[in-house]
Amino acid sequence: MKFFDDIAVGERAELGVHTFTADDIRRFARKYDPQPFHLDEAAAARSHFGALCASGWHTAAVWMRLMVGHLRREDEAQRARGEAVASFGPSPGFRELKWLKPVYAGDAVTYSTEIAAKRPSNSRPDWGLMSFRNTGVNQRGEPVISFVSVAFVERRPAKGAA
Amino acid sequence: MKFFDDIAVGERAELGVHTFTADDIRRFARKYDPQPFHLDEAAAARSHFGALCASGWHTAAVWMRLMVGHLRREDEAQRARGEAVASFGPSPGFRELKWLKPVYAGDAVTYSTEIAAKRPSNSRPDWGLMSFRNTGVNQRGEPVISFVSVAFVERRPAKGAA
């Protein structure tokens, strides 16, 4: 990851695409969200969703995995260029998570992230706080998930510092 | 679940306790949040967390599972008393998710939910919107997660309606 000081508000990255298969949807639901419309086609057909669809927590967890993969690829590219790599620190949390449309079995969701805001940390002088506006859009171009995540990102060490 | 009309702001329920074992933490992390401090004790010891700890999305997903179990037990108790059971509808999302402390391997988190607000739905007259303030507290009494979720809950059918 780039250092806090080198990241501009408005920078945007595509994180990847995930296809939510019926098996994938049921596997997550059995462990974390065992509601009938996430587990069983027939029950889902009778529900307000009308067909098997993914747990909202599943669509959020997949964002996390794609974000981690994206940061890893970015780190590797920086190292390949001989650049120092900043640490991605803990996240204090998330805001305004919206599940905008159901994600049905077979839907392919493309996730993106955009730098929404940044500010130096008051409590940790070596770190800054970045806000990311994250979105997932299905194969019909419809947004299905949107949220703002916040995370600590390392600041560039001062010149001459250890 | 009780009908929207029969639920009072301030009602509170304990959802259950989950112990986050190291295996459990690594299993979730491998699939959804493969960062070193969620996967490997030695790497976690060197990180800002200091020890293996759960993905924040894992602590949220466990809330969902315990909430589903709680609603199911509530439904069964209502049916045993011969009462009608309301449907728990889709969730438009959540707000203000805060990961307040790391959840380390071996930590036991007790989850609770409290009705924070309610209002009739404008778009769906048969439904109301409920806000739940959800919290997880570890075995030392420290809050580790807090968020507000919103979900549709069925309204009591009008007397004389089909």
Main β sheet profile of chain A: 5 strands, antiparallel
The most extensive interface between chains reads: A-B, 29 and 30 residues
General shape of chain A: elongated
> In angstroms, what separates the terminal alpha carbons of chain A?
20 Å
Widest sheet: strand ordering of chain A:
1-3-4-5-2
Query: Strand percentage of chain A, roughly?
Result: 25-35%
Strand tally of chain A: 5
H-E string of chain A: EHHHHEEEE
Helix content of chain A: 25-40%
**Nearest-angstrom radius of gyration of chain A?**
18 Å
Low-confidence stretches of chain A: none
Enumerate how many helices of chain A there are, as a single number. Answer: 4
Oligomer: homodimer
Question: What is the overall pLDDT average of chain A?
Answer: 94
Question: Helix- and strand-based class of chain A?
Answer: alpha+beta
